[in-house]
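Q: Could you write out the predicted structure for this multi-component system? I'm mainly interested in how the pieces pack against one another.
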Amino acid sequence: MEKPQILLLTHGGWGKALTESLKMIMGSVDFVHEIPLTPELTFSEYYALVDEYAAGMPKKSLIITDVFGGTTTNAGAKIGRERDLKVISGLNAPIMIEACTQIQYTGDLNFDVVLQQGQASVMDVIHEVNQSMGKKES
Amino acid sequence: MAEIVLCRIDSRLIHGQVMTKWVNQCQANRIVVVSDSLAADEFMLEIYLMSAPAGVKVECLSRADAVKNWNDNEFLNGRVLLLLPDLESMKEVYDGGIQLSKIQVGGLGGAPNRKVVFQNITLDDADVERLVYLQEKGVEIIFQTIPEDVPQDVSTILKKYNN
């Protein structure tokens, strides 16, 4: 099976900066590609750019967008549905680390786990730590 | 009768700038999108509906339905942000009876033969004709992408286009 790819759709292309920084932790992530939404692009133009790239992506590849309600997600959702690709909105570092680690170590992508890790990655730190300490005491 | 707190022409329709900036800026609690293609696309429409911020109702009408609802006084209540994808639909609904006194051009996308006039807003000859038409009807037309921009009036923009 061809290794899944990750396609990032972000406003202005901040996913590229995120990916560059993550290379410090992850090493090479040549299976990550980004298509930035720049201000001059209309929905249709952006859709066409993303769709052209998505057409060549292997099965089980993943689209990750930054903001639900933004053009990145609007375009990603339409293409994901048409091309049977999963789409996650709410790009962050933990999602990327999970997805990239999976691809690097297994050559595959477990979508449910990526989604779950992403959803669990935003937390009230002090509260969580206090709760965890409290559990040990009781 | 609804109050149109903002009428915006934006080819991206509902997107980041509109949701994070304009909805708050104009204190809208309803967004009415006028788009034939979106009204006919159940999946995309659902995404737009889901992306509405808390407390804001989103609906989408075809051009014909928008005009009909307007003329039947069925534009319900609320503080409405009216959103249209292009000047062609604006002129059509204006001629149909949605005669607003002020419209904002916030984003008109690129295509060959279109000229950039302000930030990411482009016009072609047909759009210029529509702007002049609406201007002559007495509509105040401004060009502004986000609230932080200084709004440009249509005369300035048309001069730029003709240069």
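A: Regarding packing and overall arrangement: Residues 6-137 of chain A form a domain with the Rossmann fold fold (CATH 3.40.50.510).
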